[in-house]
Amino acid sequence: MPISMLHCLQYNSFKGLYQVVAVKRLDTTGVQGEKEFLVEVLMLSLLRHSNLVNMIGYCAEGDQRLLVYEYMALGSLESHLHDVSPDEEPLDWNTRMMIACGAAKGLNYLHHEAKPSVIYRDLKSSNILLDEGFHPKLSDFGLAKFGPTGEQSYVATRVMGTQGYCAPEYATSGKLTIRSDIYSFGVVLLELITGRRAYDDNGGPEKHLVEWARPMFRDKRSFPRLVDPRLKGNYPGSYLSNTIELAAMCLREEPHQRPSAGHIVEALEFLSSKQYTPKVSNTVNSAGMESVESPKETSVILPQESERERAVAEAKLWGETWRQRRQSEQSSPEGSK
């Protein structure tokens, strides 16, 4: 649906102040445009969360269809990943993990806290908007659907969405579930890791991000090849495998094998808490992973042996936790859907 965005000042009579807002003008030519406008107004009137964009108001007078949102000062995640000029600094690793965690929290709210549950259906980097401090918020709910009710395990609907983000089972059957959103989130997480577009017409045989990355999921020695080269090695090698494995879980072909949004939030809260602090010099071994002398992501300096023991313990805990959750999910009614 064609849209145009503009920014303007709104007078807040309660505070006696002007505030900058974003106004989205929708082209409602045809039935689909009108439907998406109504869906977005309905969804944003019902939903409230710190990781969802806030709708301030709307206009549906004559042929005008306007949505008024809070102004998101830093624009979209897409622009910060894919439209960065050579003289600009790319998003650092810590910021990328913080954005991923916030987006996952918004998705978890839609899936498990909103009543009724909501399937987003259009999760992509251009729909993740960034406020001051790179605080992420999901936006554009024109394609959203309420989740299945009663005995139903899916919502049957016409296939909509953006190339590169659409879950394979939804693309082929039109059967939409919350696990379809998880696949799309996996694509966004992979964008954050790699700095590549989900789909690039100019990418030749590598135009599909997931198809390019999937063979490398099988070999941890290939993981450094997945990382955005603009980071120049400034990422925590000891937690890179956890992050890539999480993306791979979200992108599993079988929907019921993908983690829930809640489990993704828990994993990303853990990963985003491991702040990477680069040092003056890096030492990289032949496989591209950090050596013992390379930068550590912990903010507390510990003796080398203690640091190694703690890393081993955390890795074991990570693996045990995910195994238990996968077994629990597969034995639960939801896991069998």
TrEMBL record:
Its EC number is 2.7.10.2, 2.7.11.1. Coiled coil: none annotated. It comes from the Eukaryota. Residues 287-308 are annotated as: Disordered. It is a lipid-anchor. Mg(2+) binds at N127, D140. Its main location: membrane. It holds the Pfam family Pkinase. SUPFAM superfamilies: Protein kinase-like (PK-like). The active site is at D122 (proton acceptor). It is an enzyme of class 2 (transferase). It is found in: Cell membrane. PANTHER family: OS07G0668900 PROTEIN, RECEPTOR SERINE_THREONINE KINASE. This is Serine/threonine-protein kinase PBS1.
